[in-house]
Amino acid sequence: MRSVGLLVNVEKLHADPQVARVAREAVRFLEQQGVAVVLNEASAGPLGRPARGVPEEQLAERAEVLVVFGGDGTILHAARAAAPRGIPILGVNLGGFGFLAEVNDLEVGDALARLRAGEYRLDERMMLRARVLRRDVVAGEFLALNDIVITKSGYARLVRLRTDVNGDHLATYLADGLIVATPTGSTAYSLSAGGPIVHPAVEVIVLTPICAHSLNARAVIVAPTDVITVRARPVGTPPPAPPVLTVDGQQGFPLEGDDEVRVERSPHRTRLVRLGRGGFYTVLRNKLIWGER
Hints:
With 293 residues, the chain is of the alpha/beta class. The protein has helices at 10-15, 17-32, 41-44, 56-62, 72-82, 108-117, 189-192, 280-288, and strands at 3-8, 36-40, 53-54, 65-70, 89-93, 103-104, 121-134, 137-144, 147-151, 158-165, 168-175, 177-181, 205-210, 220-222, 228-235, 244-247, 251-254, 260-274.
């Protein structure tokens, strides 16, 4: 391991002195080990290493592994940049839920030592690719680790979502929206909307309607090789605002009237560093507090 990129959530860095202390210790440890360290530009100055700062989009180009200080949102952001290059991610949880993070801030030193020694495994996660086709031309293409969501916007009361799988009409939902989720995303927005929890090793795609205007609308699990096509039309008069496509809850893309959203498994995969501190079911039980009063 010759180079490591540190992506530090800047809001947490400024809000909590503990974050700055832990990140500085991580930089110092890696430098003492002779590892080249690069930092996201916004954190390099506050951490006393301004010369090591690079734009975030260059971190994955300059490092063999990314160490991400933040919550699941920061890790999702990093995953979309790292996956096309096959760069592994070690998540350090500074947030609340931390489904994707492997260690907390007090364990960083030990985690980096084990990473340096090669005492880890890689947990590969399926991702989704979404393309927006506008008059048969690709108007936008997106990569997601958690989910692709199509929702109403503005004051639209409902959106009509014609959903096809491999060209076969599955359903037309009258709903607030539709979530197309990976197994990783099954514990995120899809879970809140009533979708099933799926083990990350079971590669499927989950379709979960949001607040459907029907008692018989249910989440559906489809094969990882399936192609999902969604055409969304807002319902109401006067004509309401157009629907919106959202990627991992972080990127938004407004849709137009005749747009077709096509979602399928991406050729890219997120590679998460695991140190053997508990499997998926342990994390699930602890995070969802199952078995507790």
